[in-house]
Structure formats: structure tokens, C-alpha cells
Amino acid sequence: MTHRPLDPRRTNIAHDADVLDRDGSAQDALVDRFIELAATRKLKVVIPGGVRQQVQHPRTPHDVKSAVLPQIFNLRPGLNPSQQDTRRRIGAVLQGNARPETHAADVSHLAEAVETGCAFFIARDKRFFKKRVALRAVLPPSLKIVTPMS
Questions:
Q1: Mean pLDDT for each 10-residue chunk of the chain (150 residues)?
Q2: Is the C or the N end of the chain the one with fewer CB within 10 Å?
Q3: What is the per-residue pLDDT for 74?
Q4: Nearest to 90 by CA among 43, 57, 132
Q5: Could you tell me whether strands 144-146 and 72-73 are parallel, antiparallel, or unpaired per DSSP bridges?
Q6: Model's pTM, two decimal places?
Q7: Which domains does the chain possess?
Q8: Listing from the earlier edge strand, what are the strands of the sheet with 118-122?
Q9: 147, 121, 149: which is closest to 135 by C-alpha?
Q10: Whole-number Å distance between alpha carbons of 19 and 47
Q11: Residues whose CB is less than 8 angstroms from the CB of residue 95 and which lie 6 or more positions away in sequence, other chains included
């Protein structure tokens, strides 16, 4: 049985902080379009608390701050045992040979997408895509990791 993809206009969407980075390429138009769709509430974007915290850095461009800070975000309350387990399982997949704290922010962002019922997690980081098959075993089947170009 094949499943039809979920409509991104009817589901929660989370993203990694780098999705809003402009680099002078054709992807800049995708960043602009994503920001527009989120600002006009055509997409339901839920910002992981860690992403919100990252964009508050003084060197973050103003346009990125103004795109992220007004959005709904996860408050990052204390973690219950289920949330701790989700982070542990995601961390085990993403860590590879790196030190445990190296990918802690990515683990948190992805776990928060799970916790807030997101159907899509948008990222540019190749690590998510290299580990996509292994992540399927620890993520809900309804959560898809996609690029801005997907």
C-alpha cells in the first residue's frame, strides 16, 4: 500500500536554523518563499526552541531573526522519560564517531519536531540525509526529513 504525502499546508513543519541562510544562490528564492508562506500563515511552522535560541545570536542577520522570532515555538520544558528516550535514540543515530555533544543541537531540533507533531523537518545539513534510513527506525513514520528543494 502506498501512502500519499501529507499536505504541508495542513501539517506542522519544523526546520533547522540553516534553512533560512542565504548564500547568493538560487536557493535564496526558496528561503524568501518559505518566509513568506510562514509569515502569511499558509504554512504552520513550529520553531524548535533550540533554533529560536540560535537565531537570537547577535550575528544572526536581521531578516532571519524577523522570520523566526514571531513564529510559534517550543518552550523547551523539562524532558519527560519518553522525550529523553527519543533524544537518546536520535542521538545514537546522528552521533556516529563524533563526541556525544557535537550534534546535541541537531538531536534536539529533530526531537522537538517529533514532540510537536511535525510532518516535515526541513534541513540542509547533509548528515540528516546520510542518516535518513537509520533515522526512519527511530522517528515516527509521519515525519519526513526534506531539503528546501524537496
A1: 65 88 89 89 86 86 83 72 91 80 85 91 90 92 86
A2: N
A3: 66
A4: 132
A5: unpaired
A6: 0.82
A7: 12-146 (3.40.50)
A8: 72-73, 44-47, 12-15, 118-122, 144-146
A9: 121
A10: 12
A11: 102, 103
